[in-house]
Amino acid sequence: MSRSLAFAVAVAALSAVFAASIQGMAAGVGVFTILAPLAVFTAAAAHRLAAKRSGGLRLRFALIATVVVAQTAVAVVLFVELMFVSSHDAALTILVAAYTAALGVWAGRLVGARALSDLDRVRETLGAVGAGRRDVTTGVTGSDELASLAGDVDAMIARLDAEERARRALIAAVSHDLRTPLTSLRLLTDAIDDGIVDDPREYAARLGIHVRQLSALIDDLFELSRLESGDLRWSVERVNLDELVSETVDAMRPQADARAVSVHAELDPQLAAAKANPEQIQRVLFNLIQNAIRHTPADGSVVVRTVGGAGAVEVEVADTGAGISPADRERVFEPFVQGAGREARADGSAGLGLAIARAIVQAHGGEIWLEDARLGTRVRFRLPAAA
């Protein structure tokens, strides 16, 4: 508050100096004598109203307007009493002051009413969101601070709506993929209980397949959750991506041969080492190559390329499959969505490979994306180069 009082007194002093420079020292002293007490009173009242957190903004605006008008009226009356001789001039001065005060109060009320109306709309919108609605917006337009705040609120509501839709879709997808092996397990166990099993070992093998499928899905979901929450930590080192890519391609070749798909690597001999965890990056490669093989028809091909860049190294996995429709490109790295835009469970996969790959790459400080392709699909990811 001391700063507010000092500022008010300083303004009164400057006004007195200006009056003294025009009409002499006596006028300056008279101006300071009138303005200084009014300035202190106004500053104290304004400071108290600004600090007051009850009664609402409308009441506080009305009170501060009253203080300003009262200060103007007192100042005019005192100046007229001390410095004017002609009653005609005094009347005109009071009339001009009253007109100016009335116009200022009206203009302030107009601006304040618009601002408070926008604030009410933001508050009502947040109340509706708190009650569970996601189909509301503030409807506030403009380019001022309140409009910016309203825009942030609208964006927040849109994000909440998108996240809730994604969560519901994820729950539905998880429920579906859990139900499939659980249903098979129930049918197999019912068959065993009913004594209609010819070869128990065959049924036991089938049970084992579904149990492993269920276990793998749960493990992938748990790991994806930990990756996205940042709970997983691993050490990084200098990684020769050419060697890692060659090793991974060799490991995936039997699976590709079984589907009559050609898989090979095109390596950059000048490629710098990457700063990464080799086991995690190899998992990314396994996921991408396996996904490419799964969506490439017989006699097709999968190529894994390494590319150097400024301060980064890149790896691309390209296939000659059906490709990805433009409508699905934005969703391809989401859980339970396959690259071809079909539900992942349609061909028995969990649909978490690309989502896990994205989480691992982003945890390394890199990025993963889809490159434009005339034929098939090209997935590329970038990692920081080792110093």
Q: Can you summarize this structure?
A:
This protein has helices at residues 2-23, 25-51, 56-83, 87-130, 145-193, 200-229, 241-258, 278-294, 353-363; strands at 237-239, 262-266, 274-276, 301-309, 312-319, 367-371, 377-384. The chain has 387 residues and is of the alpha+beta class. It has a 5-stranded mixed sheet.
How would you characterize the overall build of this protein?
The chain is an alpha+beta fold and 387 residues long. The chain has a 5-stranded mixed β-sheet with strand order 2-4-5-7-6. A two-stranded antiparallel ribbon has the order 1-3. Helix content is 64%, strand content 11%. α5 (145-193) packs antiparallel against α6 (200-229). The protein contains 9 helices and 7 strands; from the N terminus they run ααααααβαββαββαββ. It folds into 3 domains: 2-130, no CATH class; 145-229, Helix Hairpins (Orthogonal Bundle), CATH 1.10.287; 237-384, Histidine kinase-like ATPase, C-terminal domain (Heat Shock Protein 90).
